[in-house]
Amino acid sequence: MADQSDPHTGSPEPLLKTEGIVKSFPGVEALSEVSFSLYPGEIHSVVGENGAGKSTFIKILSGALQPDSGTIYSDGQEFSHLDPHKSQELGIQVIYQENILVPSMSVAENIFVGHEKTGNFGFISYNRTLQEAQELIDSLGIDLDPGTKVEKLGVVDKQFVKVLKAIALESRVIIMDEPVAALPPEDTEKILHLVRDLKRKGISVIYISHKLEDVLGISDRITVLKDGEHVNVHDLSEEEVGEDLISREMVGRPVEKFYKREESEIGDVLFRVEGLTRFEDAPAVDLEVREGEILGIAGLANAGRTELVRTIFGAENYEKGEFEYQGKRVKIFSPRDAISTGLGLIPEDRRVSGLASGLSVSENITIADLDKLGDVFLDLDREEEFVREHVDRLEIKTPSLDQEVRFLSGGNQQKVVLARWLFANVDILIFDEPTRGIDVNTKAEIYKIMHGLAKEGKGIIMVSSEMPELISMSNRVLVMKENRVVAELTGEEITEEEIVSHAV
Question: What does the angle CA 80 – CA 81 – CA 84 come to, to the nearest 5 degrees?
Fold first, then answer.
């Protein structure tokens, strides 16, 4: 891209620029000659399907990875690479999807952790910490108590704290990686409003998201990446850009052609939960899922959806409750019990609780049922045969079966977790935010796989914050509020208006 004066700020020079960035991993060229520029006070979004190179590009700007070749420019300086210290010195901060906060510390302490505020004699001053945290909070017009412990905050408030941490470090460039993934619409708008406030304060934002509607609503410019290459950059002040154009550049076809709902035959009750009480005085929850059914679970953040499915899977304790599988009572007190019963969980945060990131694709798939591969010694030939079958079935993109799963894109990591449960031959699959942080193309693939499993007679429980996903995928929807099921919707009742009316 040729250097030019930015139409939004009139600045003759970009605040941050890259030229010809190349980065390869074993068997994969993650970035190929990628150039990019960011001007002061600009919101510049980067979009692309999973595996397009977005995460690699972010890590190069943050200093977490070094490029194989290429140049980074900032403040009139030229760098072949950055390290984390230099990146921070240049005013670059990344806000990742994963939680980087200390739950047991207050909002104020989290904001200034690592550069604590001191008083007389050099001792940390909690009063000064609270005061300066409140000043930062007020500067963004956020409703947040600096003394509240982070563990008591909801998802959107934790995102606010991450941004406040970055501002406290006098950042000039804030990179936001999927900041609204899995957030309901009302919380998404809070984050988007915050991004606009950052722009008004003169802070530049690199915004990474798969939600094209949001990207188009807040961006000054949009860069499209595909297969590690720079496809195009759109200046929204000079051209009209829609979701169809962006999706074509990302994956080669318009957004309306990504997915068409498929019907499956609903059979007998496969799994039933009765009177499940997660904690003392908590409301009891009943639910059932039938053969071939996709049961959606809706609700706002902190409604108890994830906690419910984790409890069903044995990952969290409960006070009382009964479980029934194929008409017989079963005991579930641990994930091992759940797997033995025939349940598999594809968790919301697959990178933390769903995958062993240091293990290979093969090891991650077979880890749930090693007995299939031999009583004493593992039959490696049989393992490769089984794994190859599931990799091919789910179209997992990996250079080899021995590739460490942490090097795969988010969508392919999701498929590896799913392949694990298919290998274990479970009958009930629990998807917690199945397409969180996944591009529209991979979403369509995941939807097709889920409906294929339903057609095979498996029961699917799906927690989702995305209304179109709930409406298009679910045969029934349970709406949760404050840890209780407040409504069950079927057929034409499954609309955004109905779901929201019960959830709020």
Answer: 160
What mean pLDDT is reported for the chain? 86
Q: Measured at the alpha carbon of residue 311, what is the angle toward residues 304 and 301, in degrees to the nearest 5?
A: 15
pTM higher than 0.85 for the full model? no
Contact assessment for residue 282 and residue 483, using Cβ atoms and an 8 Å cutoff: yes
Token pair 């009750």: residue: 269
Q: Is 358 exposed, middle or buried (0-12, 13-18, 19+ CB in 10 A)?
A: exposed
Residue located via tokens 């010809």 = 20
pLDDT by residue (tens digit) across 15-63? Answer: 999 999 999 887 678 899 999 999 999 999 999 877 788 989 999 999 9
Distance CA 391, CA 417 (A): 11
How many other CB atoms are found less than 10 A from the CB of residue 127? 10
**8 Å CB contact between 495 and 471:** yes
Per DSSP, 492 falls in state G
Q: What is the pLDDT of residues 99-153, one digit of tens each?
A: 678 999 999 999 998 888 887 777 888 889 999 999 999 988 888 999 999 999 8
Is-contact 498 296, C-beta < 8 A?
no
